[in-house]
Amino acid sequence: MSSFALNPRLEGDSHFVTDLPLSTVRLMKDANYPWLLLVPRKSDLVEVIDLDEADQQQLMREIVQASSILREVSDCEKLNVGALGNQVSQLHVHVIGRFRDDAAWPGPVWGVVPAKAYDHEKAEHLIEQLRDAFSAD
């Protein structure tokens, strides 16, 4: 296997938040929803089953951690978690905070409304809150 490289689309569509033992955590550049991506930092992964058993378990721990932190920071009403990979095959897990009054409720977020850019200060503030929560956890 070659060394880890983040898919350019994932990189362009998100901001770096922090690194966990297995995954890099990124904030999607869509202010419509509080939305994290977890991308395991191993190369040539497409599906969760491409990870060995220990890394599968670690990924689940990181999904739970990211979900808890996102709920704490955003006060969302519901969490959507999924690893679709239909547009970008590199293994990544979406953790999306949802609200009953968001643009896509109760359906999935994809394609409902165009991505809304974060105000720079709001993005930086949210990233800082997330980093603080991850480091305190």
What attributes does this structure have?
alpha+beta, single chain, 3 helices, five-stranded antiparallel β-sheet
Overview of the molecule:
This protein is of the alpha+beta class and 137 residues long. The chain is built from three helices and five strands; from the N terminus they run H-E-E-E-H-E-E-H. It has helices at residues 8-12, 53-74, 120-136; strands spanning 14-19, 23-28, 35-40, 78-82, 93-98. The chain has a five-stranded antiparallel β-sheet with strand order 1-2-3-5-4. A hairpin with a 3-residue loop joins strand 1 and strand 2 (23-28). Helix 2 (53-74) crosses helix 3 (120-136). The chain is globular. The termini are far apart. The model has no long low-confidence stretch (mean pLDDT 96).
Provide mean pLDDT, rounded: 96
H-E order: HEEEHEEH
* Strand-residue proportion: 15-25%
Distance between the termini: 32 Å
- Helix-strand makeup class: alpha+beta
- Rg is 14 Å
The strands making up the biggest β-sheet line up spatially as 1-2-3-5-4
The main pleated sheet reads as: 5 strands, antiparallel
Structure annotation, total helices: 3
Query: Any idea what the shape is?
Result: globular
Total count of strands: 5
Catalogue the unreliable spans. Answer: none
The percent range for helix content is: 25-40%
